[in-house]
């Protein structure tokens, strides 16, 4: 697993979080964000981008 930075918008606020992902796909990132923020925010997560952490 590799550490990635997930850039996203939640309720109009630009945010970022770190996550351990296998491939670094947006789908994987969405699953990680739902684990962090909960299913109730599924419709509020937008503009998801994934980059490798340094």
Number of domains: 1
Question: Which series of helices and strands comes N to C?
Answer: EEHE
**What is the number of beta strands?**
3
Number of helical segments with 4 or more residues: 1
Strand order of the largest sheet: 2-1-3
Helix-strand makeup class: alpha+beta
Average pLDDT figure:
93
Low-confidence parts, pLDDT < 50 over ≥5 residues?
none
> What's the overall geometry?
globular
Strand composition percent: over 45%
Q: Using only CA atoms, what is the Rg?
A: 10 Å
| Biggest sheet layout | 3 strands, antiparallel
Helix content: 10-25%
> Whole-Å distance between the termini?
14 Å
Walk me through what this model shows.
The chain has 54 residues and is α+β, with helices and mostly antiparallel strands. It has one domain (2-52). It has one helix at residues 26-37, and strands at 2-10, 13-21, 45-52. Strands 2-1-3 form a 3-stranded antiparallel sheet, covered by helices on one side. A hairpin with a 2-residue loop joins strand 1 and strand 2. It starts with a strand and ends with a strand. The model has no long low-confidence stretch (mean pLDDT 93).
Short précis:
The protein is 22% helix and 48% strand. With 54 residues, it is of the alpha+beta class. It has one domain.
Secondary-structure blueprint:
Layout: E1 2-10, E2 13-21, H1 26-37, E3 45-52
Antiparallel strand pairs: 1-2, 1-3
Spell out the key features of this protein.
54 residues, alpha+beta, three-stranded antiparallel β-sheet, 3 strands, globular
């Amino acid at each position: 697993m590799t550490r990635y930075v997930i850039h996203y918008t939640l309720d109009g606020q630009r945010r970022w979080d770190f996550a351990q992902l296998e491939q670094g796909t947006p789908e994987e990132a969405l699953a990680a964000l739902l684990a962090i923020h909960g299913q109730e925010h599924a419709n509020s997560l937008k503009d998801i981008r994934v980059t490798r952490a340094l």
